UniProtKB/TrEMBL annotation:
Residue windows of the TPR repeats: 327-360
PROSITE patterns: OMPR_PHOB (PS51755), TPR (PS50005)
Residue span(s) of domain OmpR/PhoB-type: 1-62
Highest taxon, organism lineage: Bacteria
Keyword terms of this UniProt record: DNA-binding, Membrane, TPR repeat, Transmembrane, Transmembrane helix
Protein name: Adenylate cyclase cya3 (Sinorhizobium meliloti)
Sequence intervals crossing the membrane: 77-95
Residues annotated to bind DNA: 1-62
Keyword Disulfide bond tagged: no
UniProt-listed InterPro entries: OmpR/PhoB-type_DNA-bd, Sig_transdc_resp-reg_C-effctor, TPR-like_helical_dom_sf, TPR_rpt, WH-like_DNA-bd_sf
């Protein structure tokens, strides 16, 4: 639409988003996908009709009509391109969260913690996470991922602005106060457009009633938006399970803040204590399984590797056994099975995690990775598309995964666009960036990316990478192509 309106003139990405999507929360990748579809229809392989100008600027160059009997065909294709762009615009507008006639979209913001200082910590996020998980089980709703919602922690923005940026119809905000024995939770459901309070309530319950209170909150939210609520059995939680959950949350927070060997070893020690003290809770086993996997992955734990792999497997399966409705238990099992080279088993576990919590972006991301490793790239990209709907803001690992899948398909221009659209670049992702640049024939940039990776991973080698991915990357030729790219980019053999 916008490109056809000004043929021959450049239009930047922001202008396209503003004109076509009219203020909706759209990722730059949405524009790139539409442009790619136009080029496909026009058979514009060389990008001579729809040009990409540096710095995310596009230009429509109408084909000449020098040959009369072909000009009509070209004009038809140009018109079809405009139609495709319109279709893209409307499709993305309809599929974005909050667009009618789709299901209601709810964003659960992090709850404020008004507890005394000695009790402040991870309980707030645990409560918000539980509400999000419970709501995600209702097919009547679409729940924005916490990774996007939690970017507005302590934000001064009006609720309507937050809802608009997240693409949410409704926003749940609240607070809680824990005094050591009781938790007082307040919650308020707000209309994302008008900021009208649709429902509010307060709960003052003993700690062991915490999850049951959240089930009631979830059902009341469901009633507030006028949807039929699926009858669910209320979960039970003991004091020990709450404590184990807090340890697991503390471990996750610690490793996210400081991804290092020291942080991981603290997590392993704490979770060992959790397993001993709370043997009937799934949180200790699933958390420890994930920690041991990270330890082996980065060489941060010592001992008999085969024995550690077996213990990871035992712990992950124990987590599932203790809490078969916990999506994180299946996510942990999938990660362990993948690392232990049971790719099909990992895919099944990730699918179960997604079934239990369809709004978990990292469970879907793990599934997408596993599918790509076995060559199911189209299905993997479908999972990525779902992630882009439920996790619209915080997506660096999603971009990283998607870019690697695009590289795997040979769409290296698209892969670079996807990668550079990420809000941040983890150091480990420089391996992918190096492979992409090498695919594009830019050896210098490939070596620069590899240098950035090796600066923080000085002992990494192609042999170590081969040992890591052998048995996991089973798509024909994928592992060899990856390893050859890394070596050509400068990774020591």
């Amino acid at each position: 639409m916008e490109l056809a309106r000004v043929p021959g003139e450049t239009v930047n990405q922001d202008a396209l988003i503003e004109e076509i999507w009219q203020g909706r929360a759209v990722t730059p990748d949405s524009v790139a996908q539409c442009i790619a579809e136009i080029r496909r229809v026009l058979e514009d392989i060389d990008k001579r009709i729809v040009e990409t100008v540096p710095r995310k600027v596009y230009r429509l160059v109408p084909p000449t009509a020098a040959v009369p009997d072909r000009s009509s065909r070209k004009q038809q294709l140009a018109l079809l391109a405009v139609m495709v762009l319109c279709i893209c615009a409307f499709a993305f507008a309809l599929l974005r969260p909050g667009a009618p006639p789709g299901p209601p979209v709810i964003a659960v913001l992090p709850f404020d913690d008004f507890s005394p200082l000695e009790y402040q910590g991870y309980l707030s996020d645990a409560v918000s996470d539980n509400i999000t998980t419970l709501l995600a089980r209702y097919p009547q709703f679409l729940i924005i991922s916490q990774r996007s919602s939690f970017t507005f922690r302590n934000s001064d923005l009006p609720v309507s602005d937050i809802a608009d940026r997240l693409g949410a119809d409704f926003v749940l905000e609240g607070s809680q106060q824990y005094d050591g024995t009781h938790v007082r939770t307040t919650a308020r459901l707000i209309d994302g457009a008008t900021e009208a309070s649709l429902w509010a309530d307060e709960f003052d319950v003993p700690l062991d009633e915490l999850l049951r209170a959240n089930s009631r909150i979830s059902r009341k939210i469901a009633n507030a938006v006028g949807e039929k609520v699926v009858d669910m059995a209320e979960p039970q939680m003991s004091d020990g399970d709450v404590s184990a959950l807090l340890i697991a949350n503390a471990a996750q927070s610690r490793i996210m803040r400081n991804f290092s060997r020291d942080s991981l070893l603290v997590n392993i020690a704490e979770q060992e204590q959790s397993i001993r003290d709370y043997p009937n809770s799934a949180w200790g086993p699933l958390g420890q399984a994930l920690s041991l996997r990270i330890g082996l992955r980065y060489g941060w734990v010592e001992g008999d590797e085969d024995a550690i792999r077996q213990r990871m497997d035992d712990l992950a399966r124990r987590g599932v056994e203790l809490d078969p409705n916990n999506f994180l238990a299946f996510h942990a099992l999938g990660r362990v099975l993948m690392f232990n080279r049971d790719v099909e088993g990992a895919i099944s576990a990730f699918r179960r995690a997604v079934d239990l919590n369809p709004s978990s972006s990292f469970a879907r991301n793990a599934l997408a990775q596993a599918l790509a490793f076995v060559g199911k790239t189209e299905e993997a990209l479908e999972e990525i598309a779902d992630i882009e709907l439920i996790d619209p803001l915080y997506g660096h690992d999603t971009n990283w995964t998607k870019a690697r899948i695009q590289w795997q398909r040979g769409a290296c221009d698209e892969a670079l666009d996807t990668f550079t659209a990420a809000p941040s670049i983890p150091v480990a992702a420089n391996k992918t960036l190096a492979a992409i640049y090498l695919c594009l024939g830019n050896a210098d940039m490939a070596k620069t990316a590899m240098t950035a990776f090796l600066d923080e991973n000085s002992e990494w080698t192609v042999a170590r990478e081969r040992a890591l991915i052998t048995g996991m990357w089973t798509a024909p030729g994928l592992a060899d192509r990856w390893l050859e790219s890394l070596e050509a980019a400068g990774m020591p053999s």
